[in-house]
Amino acid sequence: MNTPDGFNSTFDSRQFRNALGMFATGVAVVACVADDGTPLASTVSSFNSVSLDPPLVLFSLANSALSLKSWLNTPHYTVSLLHTDQADLSNRFAKAGSDKWQGVRPVRGPSTGLPLLPNALAWFECAAYGQHDGGDHTIMVGRVLSFRTRQLSDDQPLVFYKGRYRRLAQEAEPVAADDGLYLHAW
């Protein structure tokens, strides 16, 4: 087996971040309500499935986030997976500040009553299940209490790749995975 040239064993944070940016991700907004009743939200690209049984998902938050303490104490939160036309919402909730919800009319989750972004591709209501050290981030694992997906023919996810929003190419005919082929060994 040949070893490719150019591997970095010294970690320049920018180069490492650029390498991680080669993995295309969807974009989600996570939301909760702080103890004082303030609705909080943050854009994440770290949303992931963890388990089908029990139904678990995860995302991570920077330990430097001003609202991290509230997130660590919340018993419930929501996840809204963004549609390709929701880059403005992604930008809004990616910034620090207290006026993120101004002008946004959230829908309320039926299980928790917490805010969800309107017109998202999918919504998840979660109970806090676990928190794990992730270096300069905290990994938040949630048990899914309820979920809903939008089923429109033009549904396309907001994709983040190489530090920019992207769109999926339109296919003439979608390619289905083999029935026996599952990601994550499902």
From TrEMBL:
Top enzyme class? oxidoreductase
Q: Which domain of life is it from?
A: Bacteria
What keywords tag this UniProt record? Oxidoreductase
The EC number of this protein is: 1.5.1.42
Protein biosynthesis among the record's keywords? no
Question: Which Pfam family, any one, appears in the UniProt record?
Answer: Flavin_Reduct
- Which InterPro entries does the record cross-reference, listed alphabetically? Flavin_Rdtase-like_dom, NADH-dep_flavin_reductase, Split_barrel_FMN-bd
UniProt domain Flavin reductase like: residue ranges = 20-167
Q: Does the keyword Ribonucleoprotein apply?
A: no
What are the GO MF terms of this UniProt record?
Answer: FMN binding; FMN reductase (NADH) activity; riboflavin reductase (NADPH) activity
Signal peptide location: none
- What family does the Swiss-Prot or TrEMBL record give for this protein? Belongs to the non-flavoprotein flavin reductase family.
Under which name does UniProt file this protein? FMN reductase (NADH) NtaB
- The source organism is Pigmentiphaga humi
